[in-house]
Amino acid sequence: MNRLADSLTRRKRLVGFAPAPAPSCGPPPALTRPKARRFAELCAMTAVFAGVALFASLALPRSARAFGDVGAFDPRVLIVGDVPGAARPSAAARWSWELIQRTSAPGRLTPTHVRADDPAVVDEPFLWLSGVNALASFTPKEISGLRTFFSLGGLLLVDDAGVSDDGTPSAFGRSAREQIARVLPETSPITLGPEHVIYKTFYLLRRAEGRVAGQKTLDAIVRSGQVQVLFSSHDLGGALARNSTTAVGSGGFSGSGAWENPVTPGGELQRERAIRLAVNIAMYTLSSNYKDDQVHAPFLMRRRALPSAP
Hints:
Distance between the termini: 62 Å
Number of domains: 2
Structural class: alpha/beta
Radius of gyration: 29 Å
Strand content: 5-15%
CATH class of the largest domain: Alpha Beta
Helix content: 25-40%
Shape: globular
Order of helices and strands: HHEHEEHEHEEEHEEHH
Number of helices: 8
CATH topology of the largest domain: Rossmann fold
Number of strands: 9
CATH architecture of the largest domain: 3-Layer(aba) Sandwich
Largest sheet: 5 strands, mixed
Strand order of the largest sheet: 3-4-7-6-5
């Protein structure tokens, strides 16, 4: 019984309940045999109660950090210059909603926005820049912020919301490429054909599509084997935008409402393929590689920043 009491005492001290070793439960030499027996019984009872108290304290619910939005996909809207926000304001929330409904991956139901010159630009691994009008020249602070974001392995989607129905880029699309070239002057966009993993991360897709069919492929800047900038001349946000896609209740979300834009020329089947492309992009962001395990966003960004093995 002394060994049991000593063991319990050591366990309590390890978890912070006992500042010092408990005295031995052996009877003092001067006690008579009946008193010694009674003393031993009291020690045994004390040990039992101590064990029960220890178990109860460990079993009680503790404050835990809920998963919530930690590590969830956040289609963050990138703000540069005097651009007020996304060209398709409701599309970001719909993007997260579709991701959650279709996959087991987490998505932020209330997406955020961040300025390129804000230190928080590096807090998440994804940015989404969209527009219709030509962009003003990026400021030195905006360029610096985006370079830091890319150095950590972040991914930027440049989505041309003003692209014409035949796929001709708008002033936004042309100027966005010019400004990104100032941020990453050492690299040039390449074409991502249907063999690239971004067309396979969740759905198997043959081509890129959005509100307009446009060209069949996406263009991208690839560094150290990872896509860091995606150029879409399809108005992906235009296919996603839907009225009344808002958070409701506690953790609930409503996907009701009407689509804001017609999809040409393929109608609703094309919209479905555009949504699938958006899901694939989100899964690519959340995954370290094709079909790899989900990881925490800051860890992912640090991992992507590592140079590729020779």
